[in-house]
Amino acid sequence: MRRLDGLVDAVVMPSQLGTNVASRLATDGQLGPVIEHQQTARTTFVTGPPDGYEHTIFATLIRLNASLGGSYIVLPSPGDRLSGDWRWLFLPCNGFRPAMRVVLDAVVAVSER
């Protein structure tokens, strides 16, 4: 899926960090669509667009091996069920995507524990 500038973006991180972030977001009622790529052990959180906050925590993101989505977000397809490469950890529902800042705040919070 090509990123729709101003509407959809993503935060990508190692799966172990992603598990902790997902738990935090679920507790806060802010968990949106989440994708796992099993071969690379990476988790992608589909979010709203960035607002500039990501620049203030750039060093933290680098240290945690986390990044923003880039130009494309790879979504699981029906064929991925057979290969197991990409899978939805949390399916999209009702169009909800957390603000990128909310996901980034959760990344920072769980990394400080």
Spatial separation of the terminal alpha carbons: 34 Å
Biggest beta-sheet profile: 5 strands, antiparallel
| Helix and strand element order | EHEEHHEHEH
In terms of DSSP E residues, the strand content is: 15-25%
Report the principal-axis shape: globular
Radius of gyration: 13 Å
The structural class is alpha+beta
- The total strand number stands at 5
| Percent helix | 25-40%
Query: Which blocks of ≥5 consecutive residues have pLDDT under 50?
Result: none
- The strand order across the widest sheet is 4-1-3-2-5
The helix tally amounts to 5
Nearest-integer average pLDDT: 88
Description of the molecule:
The chain has 113 residues and is an alpha+beta fold. The protein has five helices and five strands. The protein has a five-stranded antiparallel sheet. α1 crosses α5. The longest helix is centred in the first third of the chain and has 13 residues, at 15-27.
